[in-house]
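Task 17 of the worksheet. Students: predict the tertiary structure of the chain below and write it out as structure tokens. Keep your answer in the requested format; marks are given for formatting as well as content.
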Amino acid sequence: MDILAFIEWAVKPEIISKPIEVRWYGLLFALGFFIGQSLMTKIYKQEGKPESGVDSLTIYVLIATVLGARLGHCLFYDPDYYLAHPVEILMVWKGGLASHGAAIGILIGLWMYSRKFNYHFLWVVDRVVIMVALGGAFIRLGNLMNSEIVGIPTDVPWAFIFERLGDNTPRHPVQLYESLTYFATFAILWGMYKKFGTSLAHGRLFGVFLIMVFGSRIIWEMFKVHQAGFMEGVDLRMGQLLSIPLVLAGLYLLFKSNKGDTVEQEKTKIG
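Model answer:
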């Protein structure tokens, strides 16, 4: 294969190194939260909710994302190592975050938030997943900047050669595949919300999110290098095994939402 036909990716993960180190991953992660918070403020204002609730929501989601993603990585992808070195679970700066763990963490955080502030759980989740899809797109771009979660070798003309890996093997830029999928998911969810708003049944947006995000994960995992070393030689990747029940949950939510109440109908009942 002629390596000149491919994209040589030599981007450094650091934007600046002095006086403090600032990384693309951290900037993109923060950007996703900033835009998400701005959009949630718009939603709260539009639906007559106190805008102060968005600040609390952001804190809940941020903490839940980091804790869930870290624990997910440690327990799903390298449990033997981290159970033998439990102190390193706390060392987030060493890397290792899992989106499936983040999903579980966020749901737990939103359940706690909805109970504390007396919101319908699915009302909160339906709106937050719009922002989560956008945040996921930015995070996968951050993975690209870090030259991590790389794809399997390929000879497609858009293959990337990740120079920081120390080899000249062209690989699928699977980070881009996922990022573009998540941007598309965000666009569809935001478009649905803008068009239908409170006429959407509870769980409809959440169901679409689960099907699109984790359905695409089942596909894109086939193009990734194995991340869970203990599953080498197994046909299914860990990411696929974790995604299947989430897709099924999405299908269930879509089915249930066809018979469920909308926000407008709830207001009518209360009135």
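Marker's comment: The longest helix spans residues 52-77. Residues 7-270 form one domain.
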